[in-house]
Write a structure and sequence with these properties.
Layout: H1 10-13, H2 20-30, H3 40-56, H4 62-74, E1 77-79, H5 81-86, E2 99-102, H6 118-130, E3 134-138, E4 148-149, E5 154-155, H7 159-175, E6 183-188, H8 194-198, E7 211-216, H9 218-226, E8 230-234, H10 240-244, E9 248-249, E10 256-261, H11 263-277, E11 281-284, H12 285-291, E12 302-303, E13 310-311, E14 316-317, E15 319-323, E16 328-329, E17 337-338, H13 340-360, H14 366-375, E18 379-383, H15 385-391, H16 399-427, H17 435-438, H18 449-458, H19 472-478, E19 493-499, E20 505-511, H20 513-520, H21 540-550, E21 561-563, H22 570-582, E22 587-591, E23 620-621, E24 647-653, E25 658-668, E26 670-682, H23 687-698, H24 703-713, E27 721-725, E28 730-734, H25 737-751, H26 763-766, E29 783-790, E30 795-805, E31 811-821, H27 826-837, H28 843-852, E32 862-865, E33 872-875, H29 878-892, E34 929-930, E35 937-942, E36 945-948, E37 954-957
Parallel strand pairs: 2-3, 3-6, 6-7, 7-11, 15-18, 21-22, 23-30
Antiparallel strand pairs: 1-15, 2-14, 4-5, 8-10, 9-10, 11-22, 12-13, 16-17, 19-20, 24-25, 25-26, 27-28, 29-30, 30-31, 32-33, 34-35, 35-36, 36-37
Length: 958
């Protein structure tokens, strides 16, 4: 093979310019020192040169291999994230290895069956995470709850209780560094505490630093298919009480049977939790061990946090990926081909580089170093399969697509094994190599005869060579945002919202690599060919079938997310997992977007109130509410007006501020105002929020409702001033900025004839349970009160939420007030929200609060406790925090969920989320966890990595 092979494909050359996202990720994740000051292409080159030099130092001829390693990376090889960020930096205590597995024995402090006790394991895991490695654990050794603890004459609390200890330790380690301490918790399906484990994350704030997976045995799956009973067992003796209830000891292995169950009940519990919350994942643990090349000297019980590397105790993930799109010649043409020759050269060099990583890295623990040296396990994979298929003109969800995926992977397997055999000739095989037993593994038996013969004769340098890992950030940084791993692209482009140093945000476009290539060679990006199928276009079964086509050629495992639509039937979902087992997969992970993902999944015990409530509840009571047919409103969201829309602009000048007020309208038979904007460097704080609130009011069909709002706001106190009113500049004295804004909007609405229609509908006005704010008598009334302090802006005030008792006995907020130090113009948004609170259908107030909960303010963000928890996070602004607190109060009262969606909508608002349409190319926001970048509840698991479907933020993988 020509060792001077270089990339010659057109695919990369036509988009050689660097996307801004690539520069951002390079700078934030991988560049060190002076590298951060370089322009994008030079920055990538400097990082690669640093890595090449560091790894080549492990070779006898360092200069020769520095050049070879540099060419390999420029030709498509991307070492794992930890290698790119740390190799050659001189930081001695940081590991280049992504992840490890840590053993845990059934003891507090002693070593049992070769596994160290719980607290020594906790110490070692903390040390590993401190050095930058993620950790996987099998908790199955820990005795179940109710088992005897003879030394203390007590009963065990079970493995889940100790998982919380590891979870808290991970949180502490995380606070000391920039990288999240990723963890994987595994429990065998036959463990007596399996159902406690399955539901362990279904409470808010529980095990947030864990991914969890169930180790499914073949015997369980066979019992499930046969409908026969299944035993939950452990070697620890149960308590006398459990023995009295029927627990017994098996003769064949001495294990104790705690319960005999219907496997369908466990399977249903696993599937139900996975369907609703994307966890637990499933590992087919027996298949993992049958396939294992080292079946003769190790037992695998767990995986790393993303599941692509099943490894034994103290095993490691030494990862790297090859960008497949770098080898496509003549993309999108009839002559499109894959450059196997260059690919083979890069694979060969990548194997050597990853083998060198094992020598170059610092090891958190000596046991990890010894395990790695004994077996020299590496995990070479690829990224960009989805985009490579597109550039070849092949659909991902087709039989030709699966054939191509399998062919590429088989070629990579054979090339990597040949390269490792050559390394064994040069440097020797891994110490625990046994040719006869090695070649008896399920995987090695499928190798070509000539490779097996070469292994018998020369040995092999690395026990395992192949793994498909998540490539979220390295694909962004080094591969022009090509599709990740074996995944299809998620979307063809999205808008990335980036928070700047001054607290402001800036948007820019992020494009998929294949989409860029399509446009760069002169094609219309609005007219994509049939081969452009995204992850959300592809059926769940076709996702799984691609994984099944590739798995036979991967000796470790594959990180793959099977995207499942929100309306995917539960029965088919469970069948998908059964089919995955039958297809020979080692595990399967799904992601199904739904309204509760990332929120509270079960009711928690109420926290005791600080307030003495021994006296009668002095809440105002509403004796009756209107009986109305709630008509759907005109627009739930801003209409999309591709041709633009007309509007007028008013300037408002007071003693303290100067701002522009834009009022836009549409012309559809009649002119109808539909939005308000506030702009200007001197605009008062709080008016942008009020404009968003009033824009939704304008888009309702209820003109009386808007009139009520404007009449109320026109009396809002602030700093009084006189302003010139249109059309001729007559002077009007107004009590403040909010009132000025209300008068100008009212003028424009009158000018458009909005309030002259006597036959108009009034759905919002009719649905108010109280037109005027209910007033308390001299005995007063209770309110919900929160202190708010934004040190950045100097806001320091209390928020009071007055509540009433509805005829059905439920409690409802009906008014919100502020008292303390804050901009008086905030009174506008609180007045407006107080009216919104009195609409019967809580979908209305939910929509209003959701529109404000992520509202940013330049240099106005601050740290504060997340409502409902002790965890602190960045709040986008004081107004956003007010909205989040109000959502939390509505959630406490059982009215809204944690994201602000109504638990019992009455039909006033039409469905706000449309199903993804085939061919959609832009942002596709999906419900998920709260994003640390933008604060939107839209962080999903995409290709093994945290990804915000609202702002494009890519977080941790694993």
């Amino acid at each position: 093979m020509n060792h001077k092979a270089t990339i010659t494909t057109e695919s990369v050359h036509v988009v050689s310019d660097l996307q801004e996202i690539c520069f951002d990720v390079l700078q934030e994740k991988y560049a060190k020192g002076e590298e951060k000051t370089l322009p994008g292409p030079e920055m990538a080159k400097a990082i690669r040169l640093r890595v090449a030099k560091a790894l080549a130092a492990e070779e006898k001829d360092a200069k020769k291999y520095q050049d070879i390693f540099m060419r390999a990376m420029e030709s498509g090889f991307i070492p794992g994230g930890r290698v790119n960020s740390s190799a050659g930096t001189g930081i001695k205590n940081v590991t280049l290895i992504n992840c490890f597995v840590q053993p845990i024995g059934d003891s507090i402090s002693d070593t049992v069956d070769g596994k160290e006790g719980i607290y020594p394991a906790l110490r070692d895991a903390a040390e590993t995470m401190r050095r930058g490695g993620g950790v996987g654990y099998d908790f199955s050794s820990i005795r179940p709850s109710g088992a005897q603890v003879k030394g203390t004459a007590s009963s065990a609390s079970g493995p889940v209780s100790y998982m919380h200890v590891f979870d808290q330790s991970c949180s502490t380690v995380e606070s000391a560094g920039a990288r999240r301490g990723a963890q994987m918790g595994v429990l065998r399906v036959d463990h007596p505490d399996i159902m406690k484990f399955v539901t362990a994350k279904q409470q808010s704030g529980r095990l947030n630093n864990f991914n969890i997976s169930v180790a499914i045995t073949d015997s369980f799956m066979q019992s499930l298919e046969a409908g026969s009973k299944f035993e939950l067992v452990h070697k620890a003796e149960p308590s006398d009480e459990l023995i009295e209830q029927g627990a017994y000891q098996r003769e064949e292995d001495g294990k104790w049977v705690y319960r005999v169950v219907d496997p369908a009940e466990i399977w249903s519990g696993i599937m139900d939790s996975t369907y609703n919350a994307a966890e637990p994942g499933v590992l087919f643990i027996d298949r993992i061990n049958i396939e294992n090349n080292l079946h003769y000297c190790e037992v695998i019980e767990a995986t790393n946090p993303c599941g692509e590397i099943p490894i034994p105790d103290f095993g490691c993930c030494c990862l790297g990926s090859i960008n497949l799109t770098a080898f496509i010649n003549n993309p999108f043409s009839k002559n499109a081909t894959f450059n196997y020759e260059t690919f083979a050269w890069v694979v060969t060099q990548a194997v050597r580089m990853l083998d060198d990583v094992l020598n170059a890295t610092a090891w958190p623990l000596p046991q990890q170093q010894q395990e790695a040296i004994n077996k020299r396990r590496i995990g070479l994979g690829y990224t960009g399969l989805g985009d490579a298929l597109i550039e070849m003109g092949i659909r991902y969800d087709s039989e030709p697509g699966r054939v191509f995926g399998g062919e590429i992977t088989r070629f990579m397997r054979d090339t990597a094994y040949r390269a490792s055999i050559e390394l064994a000739k040069e440097k020797g095989p891994f110490p625990q190599f046994d040719a006869v037993q090695y070649l008896e593994s399920g995987f090695a038996k499928r190798l070509p005869d000539e490779i097996k013969e070469a292994i018998r004769e020369h040995g092999i340098r690395n026990s395992h060579l192949l793994s498909i890992a998540p490539t979220g950030t390295i694909s962004l940084a080094f591969a022009d945002n090509t599709s990740n791993g074996i995944e299809p692209a998620f979307s063809w482009f999205y808008n990335r919202t980036k928070r700047m140093a001054d607290g402001s945000t800036r948007d820019y476009k992020v494009e998929d690599h294949a989409y860029r290539v399509w446009g760069a060679i002169g094609n219309d990006q609005s007219n994509l060919p049939e081969c452009f199928v995204s992850a959300l276009d592809i059926s769940a079964r076709d996702h799984m079938l691609m994984q099944a086509a590739i798995q036979p050629f991967i000796d470790a495992s594959i990180s793959k997310t099977v995207n499942v639509p929100g309306d995917y039937p539960f029965a088919q979902f469970a069948d998908l997992y059964l089919e995955a087992w039958k297809a020979g997969l080692k595990g399967i992970t799904t992601y199904r977007p739904n309204s509760i993902l990332g929120s509270v999944l079960s009711v928690e015990t109420p926290v005791p109130q600080d307030l003495d409530q021994s006296e009668p509840d002095r809440k105002i009571r509403i004796n009756e509410t209107p009986e109305v047919a709630l008509a759907s409103l005109r627009w739930t969201n801003r209409p999309k007006l591709s041709a633009g829309n007309p509007g007028v602009t008013f300037m408002v000048e007071s003693y303290e501020s100067r701002f522009a007020l834009f009022i836009g309208h549409i012309e559809n038979g009649t002119q109808h105002p539909f939005e308000v904007w506030v702009n200007g460097a001197e605009q008062p704080r709080g008016l942008t929020a009020l404009a968003k609130n009033l824009s939704m009011d304008m888009r309702s069909e209820d003109h009386d409702w808007l009139k009520i709002k404007l009449d109320s706001l026109s009396k809002t106190a602030g700093s009084p001033f006189s302003m010139a009113m249109p059309p001729v500049g007559d002077e009007m004295h107004v009590p403040g900025n909010v009132a000025a804004m209300a008068h100008l909007i009212r003028y424009r609405c009158d000018e458009l004839g909005l309030f002259t229609d006597t036959q108009r509908k009034t759905p919002l006005t009719d649905a108010m349970f109280s037109r005027k704010e209910p007033k308390s008598g001299t005995n007063g009334t209770l309110s919900w009160t929160v202190d708010i302090h934004n040190p950045t802006t100097g806001d320091d005030f209390a928020m009071f939420v007055k509540e009433c008792v509805m005829p059905d006995g439920s409690h409802r907020p009906y008014s919100v007030w502020l008292s303390g130090t804050y901009p008086l113009d905030f009174n506008g948004i609180t007045k407006s929200l107080s009216l919104d609170m009195r609409v019967l259908d809580t979908a209305w107030i939910g929509k209003k609060l959701r529109s404000l909960k992520d509202l940013p303010e330049a240099q106005g963000d601050f740290f504060a406790k997340t409502p409902g928890s002790d965890k602190q996070e960045i709040q986008p602004s004081t107004i956003a925090y007010i909205a989040r607190l109000l959502i939390h109060r509505y959630h406490m009262l059982g009215i809204l969920d944690e994201k602000g969606f109504p638990l019992h909508p009455m039909g006033m608002l039409q469905a706000e989320v449309e199903p993804a349409k085939k061919g959609k190319v832009g942002n596709i926001t999906i419900a998920g966890k709260v994003c640390p970048e933008c604060g939107v509840s839209a962080v999903i698991r995409r290709d093994g990595c945290d990804f915000c479907s609202a702002c494009g933020h890519t977080g941790s993988c694993g």
